[in-house]
Each structure stands twice: as C-alpha cells, then as structure tokens.
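FIELD: query
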Amino acid sequence: SVKPARPLGVEAALAGMHQMKGEREACLKLCQESLFWGEMSVMQSISTQLPLYEDEPAHLAALLRAAEGVLEGFALESRRPMEAATFYGGAARACLHGGDEAGAAAYLERLAKLLERHDDESLLFPRPSVLYDLVPDSATVDPDLKRVAGGLFGAFDMKGQCKLAVTGDAAWAARADDPIFKPLLDRLAVA
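FIELD: result
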C-alpha cells in the first residue's frame, strides 16, 4: 500500500498555527496551495477510477457526481479546460462501456463544445482564479512548454490528443454510424 509522503492534515495544522499567530497571509497562502493541489488530485483520482468502475453503476454515478461538483465549484471548464476535457472524454467512455448511452452522449457533447471553443493554447494554459491569488505560480504554466511539448510529442496538438483518447477506443468505432453518436463524433472530428 502506498502511503502519502507526509501525514494528511499537515497543511491544515500549519495553516491553523499561522492563523493563531495572526499571520493571515501565510495562512491563506498555505490554504490556497493546498486547495489547488487538492482539486487536481481529486480530478486525477476520479479520472483514473472511471474505467475501473464502468461496469459498476453505483460507483460510476458517485464518481461522476463528485467530479461534477469539482468542475462547477472550481470553474474548471473556463479556468482549466484541459482538465475538464480529459474528464469529459473519460466519462463519455466509461458511460458507453457501462451501457449508459445517454450519459455517454451528454459527455461527448460537452467535450465537443469545449474543444470547439478552444485552440491548443487556450485549452492547455490555465486561467487565473481568485481562489489562488496569493499563490499565482501554482496555476501558471511555463511559457516554454509549447517548445518542450513539440520536442517530446512531435507536435503541439492537445486537441488531437483529447480526441484520440476518445475516438481511439474501439467501442466508438462500433458506434460510428449510430444516429445518437455519429453527429457528436463528426463534431468532435472537426472541433
């Protein structure tokens, strides 16, 4: 069993100590940093679990509900669209494999809309949030990332990667002519 690098609750205890000492900004910085990493950790954990629970409707529904709360509460679609796109693609796939065609179509629709609104750069680079105003570096991306990504992956095509994560699954190919999914898959292809 993997254990966290440090005991859970350390940030809260340290923040509480800063607060008791009247060190408001130090307390808030620690809380904001913890909130930032917590949100990312929750979404990554949910996205990782989706394919593992696609055949267990109760678990899948609970994960989707939890993710929806994070998406809305942290405004991820506008603030961190790549994170939202990754979730939508995984949720669409999990719903499809779990037999929830309506859910799969709804998440595929959300993914297509999101990709239609963004180019590669706006998809990848997060927008600032008031939630992290005291730790702005936590939500910024190195401007040189485009060059580095191009060197690693051969091209800076984040939209293409998002699409491939969905359409690369054989289950979607089997539904390519389905009247529910065909228009959505067509939109996704040109987004």
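FIELD: remark
Residues 11 and 30 are 7 Å apart (CA to CA).
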